[in-house]
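Hi support team,

I've been running sequence recovery on a batch of backbones for a student project. Most finish fine, but this one hangs at about 90% for roughly twenty minutes before it completes. I'm not sure whether the input is malformed or the queue is just slow. I've pasted the structure tokens below so you can try to reproduce it. Let me know if you need the job ID as well.

Thanks,
M.K.
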């Protein structure tokens, strides 16, 4: 089968949407760290829409830790197919990524970061890519940060790379850029900015000062459910496009991107691609992290315990769907300070419908990754608010207890888990009390008996998940 590329774009059937612009005239304007599935499903699709009216925002992807995206996309001139999953799936070929660099290509990455035309540097490197401590500040003892502080000219972490790239822009007398975090962290832009400045402060204080003045780090909320690529998708894409695509991507049709209106210099007109710019992203961010990601992790850990494999399957289990809806409406929604005019009840209803979408097979195992990094933003912040307001913790303790059970099961069966703290989580057979005492995950909650007591009760009750009444 012929491979997707610039040369074969014309062979696509009319039913497949293709870049509505001349790719040869696109100029590079964005450098993106972490061009994985979520970036390609979400931000790269928005830039693809924007390119139809403004060719200055082509994307250079940078994969620091793997060569697989570069190997899949570069032979395809950066092109890939995005499947928008609905009862009727739409296939769209995205052309905004021009090339993908890998971590070994130091000079090319540095040149891209320090190119005069680069005005946005964005990231989807997941929570763990930020190398933060429990207090949300850069962890200077993190092995990747220790290594980069030692050799700042050959960084391995995103933080080290951003600091080096910004130092190079300053050295060349270039203007600052906007560093746009697109990860699922509360206050993502602020945290990234503080981390990069802290790194620069330790290596190059003049650059730290320059960053403070010339570089902006807007907060942003990103949302679109993006199940991992599987062979079924590859086969569907091949059938629909008639071309071989080494790495197609799938997502739900729904997508939302809310960005704080705080840019260094010109801001791309992403409104044309449905993006919302606002002065304050906090409310949107809290609503999404707490009401979508929190319940997602709940469905993952409780659902896996009940033998379910996908979100839609877990939602078809009325006990679990009912529990998650009560958790959202009664326990989480009261903690969300939504923006003015935001219909929280409607938002909850829409999320439940998105979870139940039978056209999407989103694996619970995928969501279960990196629990130690995700739960603090997704559940523990809500728990702190509930404690402060004197609201009950019983339901909020269930996802935490189900995560502890998930670790115990993995330890007992000797199966690996994907988590940067896996070694420590699985030590001592995954003993739940030991995990619950890890302050880098739970902070002061580890010592709050109201919290530990509620988790202990939920943990007991989940001994037999099938028999447990999810109230
Ligand atoms: C999910 C998210 O994998 C996960 O942890 O909760 O990736 C979720 O699908 C996205 O944040 C939706 O925008």
């Amino acid at each position: 089968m012929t491979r997707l590329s610039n040369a074969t774009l014309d062979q696509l059937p009319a039913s497949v949407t293709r870049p509505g612009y001349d790719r040869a005239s696109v100029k590079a304007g964005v450098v993106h760290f972490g061009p994985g599935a979520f970036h390609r499903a979400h931000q790269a699709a928005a830039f693809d829409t924007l390119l139809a009216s403004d060719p200055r925002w082509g994307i250079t992807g940078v994969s620091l830790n793997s060569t697989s995206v570069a190997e899949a996309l570069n032979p395809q001139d950066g092109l890939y197919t995005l499947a928008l999953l609905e009862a009727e799936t739409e296939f769209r070929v995205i052309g905004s990524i021009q090339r993908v660099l890998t971590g070994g290509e130091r000079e090319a990455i540095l040149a891209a970061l320090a190119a005069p035309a680069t005005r946005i540097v964005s990231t989807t490197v997941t929570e763990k890519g930020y190398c933060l401590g429990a207090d949300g500040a850069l962890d200077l003892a993190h092995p990747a940060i220790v290594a980069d502080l030692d050799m700042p000219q050959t960084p391995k972490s995103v933080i080290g790379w951003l600091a080096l790239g910004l130092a190079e822009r300053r050295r060349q007398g270039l203007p600052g850029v906007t560093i746009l975090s697109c990860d699922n962290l509360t206050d993502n832009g602020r945290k990234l900015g503080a981390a990069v400045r802290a790194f620069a402060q330790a290596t190059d204080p003049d650059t730290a000062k320059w960053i403070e003045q010339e570089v902006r780090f807007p907060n942003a909320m990103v949302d679109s459910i993006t199940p991992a690529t599987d062979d079924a998708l590859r086969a569907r894409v091949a059938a629909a496009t008639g071309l071989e695509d080494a790495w197609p991507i799938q997502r739900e049709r729904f997508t939302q991107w809310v960005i704080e209106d705080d840019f260094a210099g010109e801001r791309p007109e992403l409104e044309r691609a449905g993006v919302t710019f606002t002065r304050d992203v906090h409310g949107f961010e809290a609503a999404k992290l707490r009401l979508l990601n929190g319940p997602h992790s709940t469905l993952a850990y409780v659902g896996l315990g009940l033998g379910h494999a996908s979100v839609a399957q877990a939602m078809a289990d009325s006990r679990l769907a009912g529990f998650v809806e009560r958790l959202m409406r009664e326990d989480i929604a009261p903690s969300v300070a939504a923006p003015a005019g935001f219909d929280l009840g409607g938002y909850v209803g829409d999320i439940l419908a998105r979870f139940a979408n039978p056209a999407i097979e989103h694996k619970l195992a995928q969501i279960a990754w990196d629990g130690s990094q995700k739960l603090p933003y997704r559940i523990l912040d809500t728990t702190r608010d509930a404690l402060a307001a004197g609201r009950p913790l019983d339901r909020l303790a269930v996802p935490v207890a189900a995560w502890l059970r998930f670790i115990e099961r993995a330890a007992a069966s000797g199966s690996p888990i994907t988590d940067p703290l896996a070694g420590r989580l699985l030590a001592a057979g995954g003993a739940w009390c030991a995990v619950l005492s890890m302050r880098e995950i739970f902070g002061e909650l580890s010592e709050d008996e109201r919290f530990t007591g509620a988790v202990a009760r939920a943990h007991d009750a989940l001994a037999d998940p099938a028999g447990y009444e999810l109230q």
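--
Follow-up from support: It reproduced on our side and the slowdown came from queue contention, not your input. The first strand starts at residue 28 and ends at 33. No action needed from you.
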